[in-house]
Amino acid sequence: MNTNPRQLQLLKEVQARRSATVEQLAETLGVTLQTVRRDVQRLADEGLLTRFHGGVRVPGSTVENIAHTQREALNAGAKARIAQRVAREIPNNCSLILNIGTTTEAVARALLHHRGLRVITNNLNVAATLSSNPDCEVIVAGGVLRSRDRGIVGETAVDFMRQFKVDIAVIGISGIEADGSLRDFDYREVKVAQTIIAQSRQVWLAADHSKFNRPAMVQLAQLAQIDRLFTDAPPPEPFPALLADASVVCDIAP
């Protein structure tokens, strides 16, 4: 969908509060109640928000992620900034794994001018993007193709990843909960991601601000298992202390 700046600001307000009334949003945005209701309806129709009587909240399902096309639009600017920051830290002539997610797809786009990369991925969108870089060798995992986002999952993909030991894994995530757990929705995807972490010398997590305090069903890892976090805004409480305790370097792309 093509969201206008006001609708993007409305999304950010709801994500920051987790929920808000129509009156609160109208006052914050300086618009009429009718305008807020119209914007909320459109965002709810796209699955980006969930309505309740008198207000709106972020989608709260722990068992199902929002659609890939909607995730591409959600915080797209933040993901692009994060991707550029990640790409600046990735040296030429190194080995990488990029997993499933719209943020890792943004990282792939930011790597189009790197040289001498060997990239292993279970994400066909990443593979298609990096195939345009003649100085990048792309190795694609086998397994079950998930049609909704072109991710490759399953035991075959797990076995495939076990063959490698790479310099850096750049992973995405659906949610980071207040206990320091990294979470996602599909246990098959999680199994592949856990193997990616185990087969990487450095693990970098790329996650925009909306991922903090977002619930999801399956635990993928703990913050202590990653080395660097790339995000677009200072993490809210209690995450600064959690990151410090886990010795995770937090890199903010404002």
Order of helices and strands: HEHHEEHHEHEHEEEHEEEHEEEHE
| Physical arrangement of strands within the biggest beta sheet | 6-5-4-9-12-14-15
Overall pLDDT, averaged? 91
Strand content: 15-25%
What is the makeup of the main sheet?
A: 7 strands, parallel
Range of helix content? 25-40%
Shape: globular
Radius of gyration: 18 Å
CATH class of the largest domain: Alpha Beta
The CATH architecture designation of the largest domain is: 3-Layer(aba) Sandwich
Indicate how many domains the architecture comprises.
2
- Alpha plus pi helix count: 10
CATH fold type of the largest domain? Rossmann fold
Unreliable runs: none
Distance between the termini: 24 Å
Q: How many β strands by DSSP?
A: 15
- Strand-pairing-aware structural class: alpha/beta
Describe this structure in words.
It is built from ten helices and 15 strands. It is α/β, with parallel strands linked by helices. It folds into two domains: 55 residues, Winged helix-like DNA-binding domain superfamily/Winged helix DNA-binding domain (Arc Repressor Mutant, subunit A), CATH 1.10.10.10; 183 residues, 3-Layer(aba) Sandwich (Rossmann fold), CATH 3.40.50. The chain has a seven-stranded parallel β-sheet, sandwiched between helices. A three-stranded antiparallel β-sheet has the order 1-3-2. It has a three-stranded antiparallel β-sheet with strand order 10-11-13. α5 crosses α6. The longest helix has 14 residues. The radius of gyration is 18 Å and the shape is globular. It starts with a helix and ends with a strand. The mean pLDDT is 91.
